[in-house]
Design a protein that fits this description.
By secondary structure, the protein is α/β, with parallel strands linked by helices. It is built from eleven helices and nine strands. The strands form two sheets. Strands 7-6-5-8-9 form a five-stranded parallel β-sheet. The protein has a four-stranded parallel β-sheet with strand order 2-1-3-4, with helices on both faces. The mean pLDDT is about 90. The structure holds phosphoric acid mono(formamide)ester. The site of phosphoric acid mono(formamide)ester has 11 residues, from helix 2.
C-alpha cells in the first residue's frame, strides 16, 4: 500500500484506503507489543505545541519511543518566541536540525498548513484553532469500530460546543467518509451557521436527539476560544446539554459514550456517567498511542509499509 500524503493536516488529506490502512496498522501495534519495535530507529520526532496538551503530546511521544525514534518536545512558551523570534524563524531553525517528522499544535487555524508550505519535513496537525484534529478523529474511529464492530450506518451524535471544536470538524469529515452518520446537538449559539452546508442533522434538544443514536460524543465548552459568553449560566447548560443518568433514560441501552478530553466533570458529563461501563473515554486514550504509532510509522517510512493480515 502506498501512503500518498506527505503531511497529515486534515482528514481531507486521507483516502478511505489510507484510513483503513492506518486503523489496521494501529490494531496491529495495539495487539502485538513487539510489532514495529525499532522500525523508526535513528529517526527524530519533534513536537511543537503552542497550546496545552495532556493526551496528544504524551501519546505522540510514547508512540515515537515505542517505534524506537527519539523525541524532542518544544512548547511555544518554552521556545525563543518569548524573546521575539517569529513563528517562521522558529520553524526554519527546527527544520535546520533535520527532524524526520514535526507535530504541531497551534491556536491559529491553518498554522500547520503554513508550516507545510514553508518546510520540507512531514507535518502532523495535532490540533489547529477551530479547524481540525485529525489524529483524534482517527483514534475515535478506531474506538467506535472496536466497540461496535463496524462504522457503516452507525448514528453518531456529537454534543456541545460544536462551533469551537476542531474535534467535531475532523470527526464529522471522517465519519461521513467512512459511511457513518454524524449528527450534532447543542445550544444554537454553539452550532456554527455554516454547518447546514455540510448536510448534517442539527438538533437543539438532547433528550430527543439521543434517542436512536449508537454513539454519543460529548465535547467540552471551549471557553478559551469563545469571544463572549454564549449561554446564560452553567446550570442551564448542564440542565439541557449535560449527559446525566436522566438523559441516558432516553438513549438506547447499548449506546456508547465518548469524550476526547479534557473532561469538565459535572458540566458536559456527570462523573458517574464518565466512569460508567458505557464510557469508552479511557479506551480512546489507549487507542491514541496505537493510532499515532501508525501515523508516525507511515510518515517516517515515506509511506512504504507492509502489514500482513
Ligand atoms: N483530546 C486532546 O486533544 O487532549 P489534549 O488537549 O490533552 O491533547
Amino acid at each position: 500500500m502506498g501512503f500518498k500524503s506527505k503531511h497529515i493536516l486534515s482528514i481531507q488529506d486521507l483516502s478511505r484506503n489510507d484510513i483503513s490502512e492506518i486503523l489496521k496498522l494501529a490494531k496491529k501495534f495495539k495487539t502485538s507489543q513487539n510489532f514495529g519495535k525499532n522500525l523508526l530507529n535513528g529517526k527524530t520526532v519533534v513536537t511543537l505545541f503552542f497550546e496545552p496538551s495532556t493526551r496528544t503530546r504524551s501519546s505522540f511521544e510514547m508512540a515515537a519511543k515505542r517505534l524506537g525514534a527519539s523525541s524532542i518536545n518544544l512548547s511555544g512558551s518554552g521556545s525563543s518566541m518569548v524573546k521575539g523570534e517569529t513563528l517562521l524563524d522558529t520553524a526554519q531553525n527546527i527544520e535546520a536540525m533535520n527532524p524526520d517528522i514535526l507535530i504541531i499544535r497551534h491556536f491559529s487555524s491553518g498554522a500547520p498548513y503554513v508550516f507545510s508550505k514553508m518546510l520540507k519535513t512531514p507535518i502532523i496537525n495535532a490540533g489547529d484553532g477551530f479547524h481540525e484534529h485529525p489524529s483524534q478523529a482517527l483514534l475515535d474511529l478506531m474506538t467506535i469500530e472496536e466497540a461496535k464492530g463496524k462504522t457503516t450506518g452507525l448514528k453518531v451524535l456529537i454534543v456541545g460546543d460544536i462551533a469551537h471544536s476542531r474535534v467535531a470538524r475532523s470527526n464529522i469529515l471522517l465519519l461521513k467518509k467512512m459511511g457513518a452518520r454524524p449528527f450534532v446537538c447543542g445550544p444554537p449559539t454553539l452550532i456554527p451557521p455554516d454547518l447546514k452546508k455540510w448536510d448534517i442533522d442539527i438538533s437543539y434538544d438532547l433528550q430527543s436527539a439521543i434517542q436512536d443514536k449508537d454513539v454519543v460524543m460529548m465535547l467540552r465548552i471551549q471557553e478559551e476560544r469563545q469571544m463572549q459568553n454564549q449561554f446564560s449560566t452553567k446550570r442551564e447548560y448542564v440542565k439541557y446539554y449535560g449527559l446525566t443518568h436522566e438523559t441516558l433514560k432516553y438513549a438506547k441501552k447499548d449506546m456508547v459514550i465518548m469524550h476526547p478530553g479534557p473532561l469538565n466533570r459535572g458540566t458536559e458529563i456527570s462523573p458517574e456517567i464518565a466512569d460508567s461501563p458505557h464510557s469508552l473515554i479511557l479506551s480512546q486514550v489507549v487507542n491514541g498511542v496505537a493510532v499515532r504509532m501508525a501515523l508516525l510509522y507511515l510518515l517516517g517510512l515515506g509511506g512504504k509499509v507492509e502489514v500482513r493480515h
